[in-house]
Design a protein that fits this description.
147 residues; alpha+beta; four-stranded mixed sheet; 3 helices
Length: 147
């Protein structure tokens, strides 16, 4: 079945692409989740009509993400955590902790956008990636200090 993607879908393509997927995947997942519509002539004409406004909105979102990325690069986030001997933390610092610290700095970042490669289990400085947009990522400096 051919569908028009309304959002970027990681394994299929970008918004506006016409892709061929299995009928079950389209009917049971993509269309109910409002990620795609069936690619018939009426939907194709309608999508072409709205494509310019959608691309303008997407460009604005991308530009806003770039501005936020520049601001995030200048921020140093300090997180206090309980630590034992040899600066080893009791537990770990999670993406939720970093998101809360960023919220205290004035940034509204979803914890799912924060990408931690390895668990933060020691006191120290870490460079953490924040994926703001499909094409825009920022690096946040996180300092973990003992309480």
């Amino acid at each position: 079945m051919k569908v028009i993607l309304k959002d970027d879908v990681k394994s299929l393509g970008h918004m506006g692409d016409v892709v061929n997927v299995s009928d079950g995947y389209a009917r049971n997942f993509l269309i109910p989740q409002k990620m795609a519509v069936e690619a018939n002539t009426a939907n194709i004409k309608e999508f072409e009509h709205h494509k310019k406004t959608i691309s303008a909105k997407a460009a604005k979102i991308k530009d806003a993400s770039k501005v936020t990325a520049e601001k995030l690069a200048a921020v140093i986030v300090t997180i206090k955590a309980k630590a034992g001997e040899e600066d080893k933390l009791f537990g770990s610092v999670t993406s939720m902790d970093i998101a809360q610290a960023l919220a205290a700095e004035g940034f509204d970042i979803d914890k799912k956008k924060i990408q931690i490669d390895e668990p933060i289990k020691r006191v120290g400085e870490y460079a953490i990636q924040v994926k703001l947009h499909s094409d825009v990522a920022a690096t946040v400096n996180v300092h973990v200090v003992p309480e």
